[in-house]
Structures are given as C-alpha cells and as structure tokens.
Design brief:
By secondary structure, the chain is an alpha/beta fold. The chain is 46% helix and 18% strand. The chain has 13 helices and ten strands. Strands 1, 2, 3, 4, 5, 6, 7, 8, 9 and 10 form a ten-stranded mixed beta sheet that branches. The radius of gyration is 20 Å and the shape is globular. It holds the Pfam family DctP. One of its GO terms (cellular component) is outer membrane-bounded periplasmic space.
Amino acid sequence: MGLERDVYAIPDYTNAGDDVRVVRLSVSMNASDYGTSASGVMVKTFVDRVEELSSGKMVVQVFPANQLASTTDDIVNGLVTGAFEMSEVGQANWGDYTTGFTPLNVPFLYPDEQTAYAIMSGEIGDGMREQLLADTGLRTVGFMHLGMRTLSNDSKEIHSPTDMKGMKLRVQSDPTQIAAFEELGASVMTTSFSELFTALQQGLCDGQDNPIITIVSQKFYEVQNYITMLNHLPNLSMVVMSDAYYQSLSAEEQGWIDQAGQDATEACYQTMLDTTQILIDQLTDYSIDITYLTDEEYQVFEDSVPNTWAMCEEAIGTDAWNELLAAVEAAQSEA
C-alpha cells in the first residue's frame, strides 16, 4: 500500500564553491521521502526555492534520517552551537523549552486540518513563533502540517470515550496529550516510536494515535484493523533556524529564506490534504474499518476533557486562552 512516487535525489552541495552560502538542514525524513511525502515535498520545495531565489548564491544541504541530531535536546544544541543552521521539531517535543506551542496541543479544539492551518498561519501562530524565538533563540522558517491525529486499535470501532475505557493506548510523551487520554479513560503508554510497531504487533499496546500518513508509512494497518478519525490534534512540525545565524544574513538573504519557507509550507499543506484522502481510500480498499465521528460524537469527546482544557488555559493565561477560542471559532465560521 502507498502512493506511486517519482524518485528524487537529494542534491549534494558538498563541493559548492567558496562564493556559495551553504545552509545545513537536519531533518527526520528518510532520503526516499524527498519530494514525495508531505514533509519531503516541503523540504524539496524549500531547497529548490532557495536556489532559485538566490540564483545559486545560496543552497541548502539536506541531512536526512536524523544524521546530525535525533533528540530535541541534540537538535536545539546543534542549532545554538552552529553545528548546523536548520532543523525541524514536532509540536509535542518543545515542552522543555517553551510553552509557545501549547495552543496546538489542546485536544479536540481543532476539528479539521483547515482550522489548524488557519490558526497557525494567523496572529495566534505569529504569537507562538514569537514566543519560541524569545524562549530559545530559534526562528520559525515554516511548518510541516502532516494532518490530523487519528486513533487506531486492534479490536473495535470507537464512537465515544466509553469505548476507550481501559484500552492501552500509546500517545506522545507530552503532558497535555497524556492528561487528555487519561481523562478519556485510556491506560496511557508512551512507548518510543521506534518500538511502536512491535508493541502493537505483540499486543503490548492496543492502539495508538498518529496521522493517516504515518499509519500508512509505518504500516501500522498491518497490525491494527480499526481507525477512528478522532481528529483530536493537528500534527505539526516546526522548521526552525538559529536566529543568530539568520541575523548574520543580509536582508536579501533573509528574504530568500522567508519566501522559500512560506512556499514550502504551502506546498506541504496541499500535499498533505491530497495524500491523506488517497491513503484513506486505499485503507478502505484494504478492508480497514474507518470510523468518522458525527458532530455530536465529537462534542462528547471535547466535553470529556475539561481538566485538560483547564491545564492548557493555566499554561497560556486566561486572556490568551480566550483569544485562542475566539480565533478558532472565527476560522471555522470562515471555512
């Protein structure tokens, strides 16, 4: 199962001339994803646009598969020390460095991809990026939108929190996400991603949450028969650059980076939308049971996590919380 893919090679700028500025970008995607998956399309678009906009005066050297750094600590340290200039970190992995992305981790606040994208692209998103910059010295160049997180399991359809009660569900090790699933009645596990397939296969976990793109790429559908389009969280990853490095660039060079980041973000988003629907159709053909929640069922889930919402409100402050709720409501009304 999967998409038919063109094959793109990551450009090698190791021998670029002394008059060419080389920006080193460390990413988690595999080399085979370059230009094909949503994240790979973002990376390729960024690489291509930087070279085009600069007429070859600036190029981006991509280091895939976490070659330069894998943990958030290693990534942040590498950026701060200048070991490389750019990388990407998922929204759930910033907790030790900033609360800036707490608004993205509010469960059942964003019912769909469009709402999450609108928030991240607007004033609320600007505030998140500004807080990251203030807290870490890292500048957000763009973001990968990899879809809404869904819930898979090996035994039954899920329509309500009652259906989840006692299920051993693997979630990301983010305090907000852990609190939400515990409030929904699940037995939460934080199995490492690298061990997740085996844990599902052996029954150590009953289920897990991830975007459709990840469920297919990691072949979780081979050991999980049911998927609920829970849409409890968007799945975003921030593409960041050391601000010290950014400030060392000329205004023209900064403009190349900014424009390429914007173009790459938009390309990733559109690819994610197109890819997700194709993969859902393929999963259905593969006899995977896919459950879509009604508006009423989704509301029950939202109403079942009041303590988690209160935790998020406390983290960002009541004024910011109210602004977030108003922005989400406005985004939905404009959809």
